[in-house]
Write a structure and sequence with these properties.
This is Endonuclease/exonuclease/phosphatase family protein. InterPro entries: Endo/exonu/phosph_ase_sf (IPR036691), Endo/exonuclease/phosphatase (IPR005135). By secondary structure, the protein is α+β, with helices and mostly antiparallel strands. It contains seven helices and eleven strands. The strands form two sheets. Strands 3-4-2-1-11-10 form a six-stranded mixed beta sheet, covered by helices on one side. Strands 5-6-7-8-9 form a five-stranded mixed beta sheet, with helices on one face. About 50% of the residues are buried. The N terminus is likely disordered.
Length: about 425
Amino acid sequence: MSPRIRGALAALTAAALIGAGSAAPALAAPPSPHKPDVLYQKEPLRVATYNLSLNRNAEGQLVSDLSTGDNAQARTVAEVIQRAAPDVVLLNEFDYVEGGVAVDLFRDNYLEVSQNGAPAVEYPYAFVAPSNTGIPSGFDLNNNGTVGGGDDAFGFGIYPGQYGMVVLSQHPIVTDDVRTFQKFLWKDMPGALLPDDPDTVLPADWYSAEELEVFRLSSKSHWDVPVKVGDHTVHILASHPTPPTFDGPEDRNGTRNHDEIRFWADYVAPGKGRYIYDDDGLRGGLRPASSFVIVGDQNADPLDGDSVDAAIDQLLGSHWIRDAEPTSQGAVEASALQGGANATHRGDPKYDTADFSDTAPGNLRADYVLPSWTLQPVASGVFWPVTADPLSRLTGVFPFPSSDHRLVWVDVKVPRTGR
């Protein structure tokens, strides 16, 4: 972990550009179990998630790329963040480097330098921690007859930390209260959706008993990162479940994706997270009535794509979670222009957050910012400008100048006092 304080916080630009069609109107409060007449802080909190594809194919390459301010992709994703101006943002697919070296370089050389006239942004607080990606398991997890390589790691990756993540914040991170769940075992989730070998008669037997004794649920990690916003703590619940593809009829990645998503649904529901333990051995889920925002590339669409049925509905249908339903006009335009699988989708393309292959699976809603019932959403959006907008140069078309995912943000009103 690499928290740091470096001078005064940069003032947010109230009129920051966020791309044509990416802003959503004010949202009415959905029904929730919280008491009315809550007193909120004056300024809303903007929370974002962004799979910015700053992963690299060789260990150490990201540090090299970020060591100057000249890397084109890093400049582009930094400008997206500057234009959206979130107060707190989760970055997915940002390679883990011990000591926060890569994070510091990204802040120093890119975020804190104006990109094409966008206001520079400072994030004095950061949290980084190891990822399961690329860590050898010692087992033949894909059952191909050999042991080794990315598919046999605890999370897919060709070196430790590839496809990692980082939380950046303009508000203090309560470092002593951070919880990580990198080593939580999949078998320890009651009713786990363990994959089944279709060539045998035994159920849920894709992984051997020996493999399940070490198999970790998180393909990267799950983090509970408390952020102090005024006198109120907001828990940033960060993760990046595995894509529900790149497997066979056993659907080992689809079932894992489902249960990685379920982890947060249980963690925030009072009484359901008693089985959970963190990397320090502390048991239990989130304290009832806590404020939280679930963020990350969940790799699951409510209606389309390859995820297990209702995987993301575990969060979207939770009594304890609000869905502000961020949208963009750029996603609608892209779906119509690209056609292919998009033409057969059941979901409304305005909710899409990722520009995937037109043949399969098409564009999907994969990235989420989901606040708790204790927080009041007031606006939301997906940074996906239409092609007529000059800022569309930041998203583009394949091969993308930034990422195949789009930054998603939600503004929430935070209570003045509370947990």
